[in-house]
Design brief:
single chain; about 90 residues; alpha+beta; 1 helix
Length: about 90
Amino acid sequence: MTGTGGERFHEIADSDLVTGCGRRIAVKCLRLTTAERPITRIALDVGRDRGGVPGAWAALTADEARGLAQLLLAQAAMAERGADGPRGAVR
């Protein structure tokens, strides 16, 4: 795929997860090849829900993706233990 400035986009790898509410979360590693330097991002694409409500997307650096992964793992561990988190706990 080629951008307007002659950049080339490459999808390196992707994976999908379908949530219990039917949203598909696509996780992709994208590389933008420019004349100056390549830019790599981890893209999250949260698709529409069963009712057709649009989702969202984000492009993260590798460090941001690792930080998000740590937050998700910590929240999952708390959910499994039934512990309340410091913020936004659902009871």
